[in-house]
Sequence to fold (354 residues):
Amino acid sequence: EPAPADYYTKLQTTLAGGTAADLFWLSQEYIAGYADKGALLDITGQLTADTTNPAAKLDDYFPSVLSTAQYQGKTFGLPWIAQPVVLFYNPELFAAAGIAEPDDTWDWAKFLEAAEKLTDKDKGVYGTGFNGWPPIHMFIWQAGGEVISEDLKTSPLDSPEAIQGAKFYADIIYNDKYAPSEATIKEQGFGEMAKAGKIAMFFGGATDDLDYAHSKDPKNALMKIALVPKGPQSRATFSWTASTVINSKTKNPDQAYQALVALTEGIHHWKIVAPRKSLATADIIGTSVPDKKDSAAMILQALPDMRAFRIVPRHQEWDTIFWEQFQDPLFHKKGTTEDLTKAARVKLEAVLPK
Fold:
């Protein structure tokens, strides 16, 4: 069952009232903060002692994904998904424009060139589409920059590399040379435009249904999967992840732990991509989601380049500043990239660990 819109509000209320469930789910950006407040059970010792449950073998997890479930050297949950961003593209629009389909030689320049050629404003068709998704972080990473440093103490948005990535993103978003306007996206829907054949190249999570929506309903556009274009320094792509955690106030920590590893093992054979290297295979992807069988090989190629966000305890505050002081004004041309990154950095670093 999908999480309700007020999930985190209800979760905080039940935790404060002592009525929260023993096990609950947290998206990557929440775990450090909940752990810092003492709301989560430290399962490091139980994992170390567990020699029977495959889901307890931490060295099998993708390191960047696992790190989101850890705080100050301790583990507070088990990730249940590692979903890299990939490039969904419409082969019929590529053929009509006389453009070869994307391959692993594609870089930012080839992507932009194709996006421009694929755009036909008279027909309401655009080469790509940005609206805050995909995360600007991944383009900053691709240029060699960071939004939060490895030691979690700085937000070097104003580095030349980060500025290069941010400018690339800002030049595309809502620019009708390549992409639909904000109003058009609001009117027609973002992913809906891709399914309707109105966006030729759409950045989406590997679990999204864009590559098989056509087989479910022929009214949907035929789309295929490619790797995201390579930036100046790398092909880094964002990986969305979440973990199941244990309430620190559980009266049954051992039973809760056993339930956690059993549940995690089951989910790893249902959700794609499982965050464990041993389960990242075409056979398991095809078995978990049969409609993804044809895309499995390309999804697997994306895994070495995926990385999750670096998370800090006050991440919700950090995210709000990042959006209000940097992304939103950047996307709406309310300042230069250089000025916005310099000003935002000061406020972002004020909420980072000292």
About this structure: The chain has a mean pLDDT of 97. The domain at 7-82+241-307 is CATH 3.40.190.10 (D-Maltodextrin-Binding Protein; domain 2).
